[in-house]
Design goal:
about 200 residues; alpha/beta; disordered N terminus
């Protein structure tokens, strides 16, 4: 099987194994670097703006130690009735989040950024996904949290795993966006940088 060669180093700026697994689908060589940034939303910042800003910040953080590379950054923010649902970080917060959204719709903003640290070019894209959650019982929520422990996932929904069982239906232009790395948009961005996938 032929693997495309790229002239510049391609780096995924993420600690997520799920984003790494998604990028591997494109069958191109890449390295991984964990960006260390503050992910706190700015006062008054819209959730979609938060996602785009953080995706770009991740690429810049990685660029500091990888000059000349193409760097991919992504971030996801969940929004329910205008309120940003962050990473719950613990069982109590995750339970409250899932009780809040059961039977209701949540908007997931997945932001993608590709930064050419050699030329300083930045491409950014925002891919929204609407998710309707099933009307979950407290027992189902507890069972899911015990099995999955999605405490570092926006809105407590680890959709790349058992979290898919929480969903009644979804609408998105790119199903990989919900997992955290919109590959359709990424292929277009890489093509504009001269990286041919197929």
């Amino acid at each position: 099987m032929k693997t495309q060669q790229i002239a510049r180093q391609l780096i995924l700026g993420s600690s997520s194994i799920y984003r790494r697994d998604l990028l591997q689908r494109l069958q191109i060589p890449f390295d991984v670097s964990n960006p260390d940034i503050d992910e706190t939303p700015l006062p008054g910042e819209n959730p979609d703006a938060t996602a785009v800003r953080l995706a770009a910040a991740k690429t810049r953080a990685v660029a500091a130690t990888h000059p000349g590379a193409l760097i991919i950054g992504a971030d996801q923010v969940a929004v329910f009735e205008g309120i940003q649902l962050g990473k719950p970080l613990n069982h109590h917060n995750a339970t409250r989040q899932l009780q809040l959204v059961r039977g209701k719709e949540v908007l997931f903003y997945t932001a993608l950024c590709l930064f050419n640290s050699d030329q300083g070019n930045t491409q950014a894209r925002l891919v929204p996904s609407r998710v309707k959650f099933r009307l979950l019982s407290d027992h189902q929520i507890e069972n899911y949290l015990d099995k999955e422990q999605p405490y570092h996932c926006a809105g407590s929904a680890k959709l790349e795993g058992l979290g898919i069982a929480l969903i009644e239906h979804m609408e998105s232009e790119d199903p990989t966006a919900l997992i955290g790395l919109p590959l359709i948009a990424l292929v277009e961005m890489l093509t504009l940088e001269g990286v041919e996938i197929v």
